[in-house]
Specification:
With 478 residues, this protein is α/β, with parallel strands linked by helices. The chain has 19 helices and 15 strands.
């Protein structure tokens, strides 16, 4: 079969706000995995990253007309759904025989609506590799897909779900993602890493042992499965050799999962001399940070560890289900800096229960930790999360898709999706921008990055200008 796989666009301004000029496109990992399975099964693949390639719907449709696909698959993030629905309508008109498949968390959550509205012919629930392969085989042979677990489809005018598909137990059996089919040369290292060249993500595990209030991992995966350390390191070496990617980003919600896994992973990089050829970054929980592990991570050429600190208020941390204390974060950052590793902290403002006082606590804590980098997001109730389940009581057709990102900046007359009871929207936006300014616009922080060369003067100027304009918006326009 001829199959087109599309990563749809979302407005860069909607998703990244005024900071869009300082960002690089983030690769989608799901479709390259699916592309690899389909190519392995003999199908011909056209891969399009509409966001990274900066091509409009008309250009995408032109590519599809030339390719004449039997099936088109979309990865459905909530913020990109206007593009998915628009492209689906165009495909229905111009290529009426082409089947449309939708995947990812948003499609799973709203499968009935998307099927009945005709946005997709099939919804893939959960891990797509095995399901999509079975679906293509059934369509190619003219058989009914209703026997395939993990699908939603239309039957007699009603959306039906075939039930959960079994998870892939041995992740090592999956082929490496088919980056050669995607515009991988556009996936450059983020400017804040200070590394030139291509950066491709690697996911070493699926699922998470924790169930944070704002995370969709629990709805996407049942339990935790990890690839073997050797398989992960093999992929990093493959990315370096095949795509000349000098950096890999571990895209797991946390990696390593255990102390032993981290030690084995780093030893393999060192034993195979890969630490002299490539660098890497990962996100860890603060209660995983130990001197021995951090020391070998530095030796294995990790360049940055990100921590989901989230809040500088103990009560908020407990509400979010983080299962660690502020002292754990203090210790982790101090040990990471002592090991000579760059630190990044993720913070979120505006969850239920947030107050002006707890926002100030978070800003003070971020400065106290003396992180190298910090990001302050507005809390967003993303579909598939406990936050969304506790908040949502509306209709799918009324969803304001453009608001489902952490840097949405409402203009006059518009509003954030969620504002805590004890705060106003203007207060929340002001605290977000005050947090950025309080952290970044400090002589010591500016001098540090100039001295270390971690942020170029050009990127620093763009970021500073975006920060000032965003603050102006939040104080005078919102």
């Amino acid at each position: 079969m001829k199959i087109a796989l599309i990563i749809p666009e979302s407005s860069r301004i909607d998703v990244l706000g005024r900071f869009s000029d300082t960002m690089t496109p983030l690769p989608n990992l799901g479709l390259p995995y699916i592309a690899a399975i389909l190519e392995e099964n003999g199908h011909k693949i056209l891969a399009i990253d509409q966001f990274a390639q900066k091509i409009n719907h008309g250009q995408v449709l032109s590519l599809l007309r030339d390719f004449k696909p039997d099936l088109v698959g979309f990865s459905c993030l909530t913020a990109a759904m206007p593009s998915v629905e628009a492209m689906s309508a165009l495909i229905r008109t111009d290529l009426p025989k082409t089947k449309i498949v939708l995947g990812n968390v948003h499609a799973s959550v709203f499968h009935d609506y998307l099927i009945q509205k005709g946005v997709g012919d099939f919804i893939v629930h959960g891990e797509g590799e095995s399901i999509i392969a079975q679906l293509c085989e059934a369509l190619e042979c003219g058989e009914s897909p209703e026997k395939i677990a993990g699908l939603s489809m239309l039957r007699n005018g009603e959306a039906v779900y075939t039930g959960p598909a079994p998870q892939i137990e041995d992740l090592d059996k999956l082929p490496f993602p088919a980056w050669h089919l995607f515009p991988y040369h556009l996936y450059e290292c983020h400017p804040l890493f200070g590394v030139n060249g291509v950066c491709l993500p690697v996911i070493a595990s699926r699922g998470c042992p924790y169930s944070c209030f704002f995370c969709a991992q629990a709805s996407a995966f049942n339990g935790v499965r990890a690839r073997s350390v050797q398989n992960v390191v093999d992929e990093m070496e493959y990315l370096l050799d095949r795509f000349n990617a000098p950096m890999s980003g571990l895209a797991d919600c946390m990696y390593p999962l255990t102390h032993k896994m981290g030690m084995d992973f780093c030893r393999q990089l060192i034993d195979r001399k890969l630490h002299t050829k490539l660098c890497w970054a990962t996100e860890m929980r603060v209660d995983m940070a130990e001197p021995e592990l951090l020391g070998i991570m530095k030796e294995a050429n990790a360049i940055q560890i990100a921590y989901g600190v989230e809040s500088g208020n103990e009560a908020m941390l407990q509400r979010l289900g983080k299962k660690f204390k502020m002292e754990d974060a203090r210790r982790a950052i101090a040990l990471t800096k002592q090991a000579g590793l760059s630190t990044c902290g993720f913070f979120v403002l505006g969850f239920p229960g947030e107050t002006p006082s707890s926002c100030r606590d978070t800003i003070r804590f971020a400065k106290e930790l003396d992180l190298d980098f910090a990001k302050f997001n507005i809390a967003v109730p993303y579909p598939g999360t406990p936050f969304f389940d506790s908040w949502w009581d509306g209709k799918v057709e009324d969803m304001e898709y453009h608001k489902y990102n952490a840097w949405f900046s409402p203009q006059k007359g518009d509003s954030l999706l969620h504002v805590p009871e004890d705060m106003t929207q203007k207060e929340l936006l002001r605290f977000q921008h005050l947090a950025m300014a309080a952290f970044w616009i400090r002589p010591s922080k500016i001098f540090q990055h100039f001295k270390n060369g971690t942020i170029s003067p050009k990127v620093m100027w763009k970021g500073f200008k975006a920060m000032i304009l965003s603050m102006f918006d939040s104080f005078f326009r919102s």
